[in-house]
Amino acid sequence: MPVALVTGASRGIGRAIAAEFTAQGWRVLTPARTELDLARPDSIREWAAALEEPKLDALVHSAGVNWPKPLAEITDEIWDATFQTNLRAFRQLLQAVLPRLDGGRILALSSILGIVTRANRSAYSATKAAVNAFVRTLAVELGPRGILANTLCPGYIDTDLTRQNNSSEQLAAIAATIPLGRLGTPEEMARVAVWLCSEQNSYLTGQSIVADGGFTCL
Asked: Do 139 and 184 meet the contact criterion of CB atoms below 8 Å apart?
């Protein structure tokens, strides 16, 4: 039975990904924040050192934070916390479990805001653009070990975080600009994510897969 490690699996897209892996016959590790606190590098090291799994078939970094702020209101604390969870923790966790991943799959949940952007998202967009670039390098560096690495860049998905950061009026306006006329669902993203991590994907690596209902085509 293949084994996947999924961060950020307590809600939203991460929870849907974990559920889809399970439905496809995978065993899924979904450490809670009390076990693996991505805001603390020491927690990442301790969790990885205690991990008893000899082999991982997929690492999915779905955890992420987003505090929309205009530039004038972004503090060092907000900037650093965003980079820690969205980018540094991914690198720290990957380094810790890499010996168990030979021939496996790496997937980071990025965002269309790492490709395009909007006001008040500078910290978030910067981290997601960096994740895209980091994963392209991973594909080159780890390809000789049979490891495939990609990012999934969702558009506007109907999650608690999306509703937290956008009013109902803003969401209606966004939906009107999406060619498919609606927000995506976590389950739609999960199906793409699990395929990217499966043996069915044997050659696609180093890519940022945009799943946005056509939003960035306009």
From this structure: no
All domains of the chain, ordered by start, with CATH?
A: 3-210 (3.40.50.720)
Q: What is the pLDDT of residues 94-145, one digit of tens each?
A: 999 999 999 999 999 999 999 999 999 999 999 999 999 999 999 999 999 9
Task: Identify whether 156 is a catalytic site residue.
Answer: no
Q: Report how far residue 72's alpha carbon sits from residue 128's, in angstroms, rounded to the nearest whole number.
A: 21
Q: What is the CA radius of gyration of the chain?
A: 17
152-170 pLDDT, tens digit per residue, is 999 999 998 899 888 999 9
Compute the distance between CA of residue 111 and CA of residue 27 in angstroms, rounded to an integer.
26
| From 124, 135, 154, 183, the catalytic residue | 124
Report the distance separating Cα 139 and Cα 206, nearest Å. Answer: 5
